[in-house]
Amino acid sequence: GNSGLAGLFVLDRTSGRVVARILTPGPVQASPVAVEGGGWIVVDSFGTVLRLDADLEPVWKEPHNLGKAALRSPVLAGELVVISTAGDAVVALGLADGAWQWTFKHDVARGSQDLAILGAPAPILLGDELVAGFSDGSIAGIDAVTGVERWSAQVGSGRFPDIQAEVVATD
């Protein structure tokens, strides 16, 4: 994808020739995610999520609209597709059918003068927990199955506390 045109472009790896363009309502700015067994999960910057099979044909009856911009790649968590949005939310959809499963909405107290960059980094999966960052500078651990917050920590501060990059975890 690119930021100027809606859709996902499929190129021939050896020549660079465009072999297909998957139409989406908005530009695709995040890398598609490969699904085990073949196929892809694609999200566009308008918040439209679709699942394609190995032949780039739709798997879900309808694309799912998140209602907010999605700028980072989805995360697969078992039978769920998890996407962060620019609205300080993390949404889980069923991998098989694209149906909504849960939404974790992080409440951000923002005054009229506060500005958020809203980078909405992708959550990372650590076992059965998703770890995500938000525009108020906090990071939260979220139960991957239920979408319930397990913990939260404040790390960003100042005028622009937004968490912009994905969390990295080690021991």
Write the layout of secondary structure elements.
Layout: E1 8-11, E2 18-22, E3 33-34, E4 40-43, E5 48-52, E6 64-65, E7 75-77, E8 80-85, E9 89-94, E10 100-105, E11 124-126, E12 129-133, E13 138-143, E14 149-154
Antiparallel strand pairs: 1-2, 3-4, 4-5, 5-6, 7-8, 8-9, 9-10, 11-12, 12-13, 13-14
Descriptive notes:
Helix content is 0%, strand content 37%. The radius of gyration is 16 Å and the shape is globular. Strands 3-4-5-6 form a 4-stranded antiparallel β-sheet, with no helix packed on it. It contains no helices and 14 strands. 30% of the residues are buried. With 171 residues, the chain is mostly beta strands.
The SSE string, one letter per element, is EEEEEEEEEEEEEE
Query: What is the 3D form?
Result: globular
Q: Mean pLDDT, nearest integer?
A: 88
- In percent, how helical is the residue content? under 10%
Helix/strand structural class: mainly beta
Q: What is the strand tally? A: 14
Strand order of the largest sheet: 3-4-5-6
End-to-end separation: 35 Å
Profile the largest sheet.
4 strands, antiparallel
> Runs with pLDDT <50, length 5+?
none
Query: Which percent range describes the beta-strand content?
Result: 35-45%
Radius of gyration (CA) equals 16 Å
Separate helix tally: 0
